[in-house]
């Protein structure tokens, strides 16, 4: 039995590549990332990709873009 009410997410590797290619983690990306983390479908390889993405944010290789009024990102 599948949960038809849950939206279909692109693969995590596609998501990772999109964020890495853009160099930005938008609010929509962060919401999608949250959906990945709340799903129970993640493998060990998926967790490795998530750790790489968070490491890239910490190092400044990927920036967070926010919709705050002061223009600063909010990751």
UniProtKB/TrEMBL annotation:
This is Uncharacterized protein.
